[in-house]
Amino acid sequence: MADNFLERHYEDYQVRKAAYLRKKKHLPKIKLHLPERPEDEAL
Fold this sequence. Notes:
- By secondary structure, this protein is mainly alpha-helical.
- The chain has one helix at residues 5-25.
């Protein structure tokens, strides 16, 4: 392909991917909150 179609699309993909990864790093991390289990009353 003389018009470098694949190269241009791959470069666009790389730009979008870099922007996505930069944005992803700034999102707050989701913390899993596990409720505390009551101590076993049978013991």
